[in-house]
């Protein structure tokens, strides 16, 4: 208390409200590489860091037409609040999109959200008390880890390999946690063209993962923004198609159309869907009527399947450019070779630290995301995620060449000072910098 009777704030000079935050806000910390990414957004830097779709490949005029029709024909509705569950026309079209991955459902079971990111937030809010365990692949999507942290969840990673999540590792992790008396609320998984690992859960493993979770009464949260962006074969059917009662499925128009609309969705078992709608209404009242109506109009009038096909061609060419450039300039590293999506996971020799190396890379005018961003437990220092979605093939080749200069420069330094640098090179992609505890 100050002498004049006015209570003093107990924060600090930077933030006078520091002492007032809820405990959950302590999970909201800016990533250490955020400042660097601001530098990396300069035009002369080739950024292999972000996950931005190449929206310039969209038929802009068809989108403009859809917007115009919405405004001319239904302007007052588009500009008004809507229902918390989202507009029925769009939900019916979402059923068609999901049918491409073997999902049969009812329009009633879909909740439209502000991107699938909001669905992630709502599901976490509904299920997580502080200290509850969420199982997630090692590595996992940085944006999901952020949400889980903000609800004070305990994220426990489960090992994956080139065929996705490893069933035996999942069994072992569940048994260990159960043995410790810990509460597992759900398994968060990205089965297709994983962000950041680039791998896809094999068809053989899918029923096994379902079975393990069913036996252990663990809900599955299936996050699938990239499934339709395959380069060769379509992906195996969604986990949701195998177990409608045990899976909450998240979808999005961000990668197949455009993230600017901020339209995603959750498909949930009936009772959960009811709670999701209530949670969505309390968070945002209703998702944007305008965005939903434009997306719906676009889906109804444009050949969206052909447009997704064009996207596949664009991303395939970029992925090929990245893999060729890695083979040419960095043959001493190992990486995943995705059949779709946006990302390649690169494994460095043990003595290189991707986070420490990033400032040097930015100085060489190339940026990537250090592997540590994708782990909740500090792993990932010897890995990095490279995105091939946004830069042109030419820029990708330039970026990888610059990256090679940085990596080789670091290795040369190590050779000079330690003498042993090049002896411990990775033979295969490593999905974490230390062996996952469940496999040790
Ligand atoms: C795996 C994954 N899930 C969810 C999202 C969020 O997507 P949005 O909110 O744009 O639908 C992303 C975005 O990069 C992602 O990669």
From TrEMBL:
Task: Enumerate the UniProt keywords alphabetically.
Answer: Aminotransferase, Pyridoxal phosphate, Transferase
**What CDD domains does this protein's entry cite?**
AAT_like
Q: Which SUPFAM superfamilies match?
A: PLP-dependent transferases
Does the record carry Zinc-finger as a key word?
Answer: no
Query: In the UniProt record, does the keyword Transferase occur?
Result: yes
> Which GO BP terms, alphabetically?
alpha-amino acid metabolic process
Q: Which Gene3D superfamilies does the record match to this protein?
A: Aspartate Aminotransferase, domain 1, Type I PLP-dependent aspartate aminotransferase-like (Major domain)
Q: Name one GO molecular function term.
A: pyridoxal phosphate binding
* Domain (Aminotransferase class I/classII large) ranges: 60-403
The prosthetic group or cofactor this protein requires is:
pyridoxal 5'-phosphate
Assembly: Homodimer.
Which PANTHER family does the UniProt record give? AMINOTRANSFERASE, KYNURENINE_ALPHA-AMINOADIPATE AMINOTRANSFERASE, MITOCHONDRIAL
Into which family does the record put it? Belongs to the class-I pyridoxal-phosphate-dependent aminotransferase family.
Name of the protein this chain belongs to: Aminotransferase class I/II-fold pyridoxal phosphate-dependent enzyme
Q: What is the lineage of its organism?
A: Bacteria, Bacillati, Actinomycetota, Actinomycetes, Micrococcales
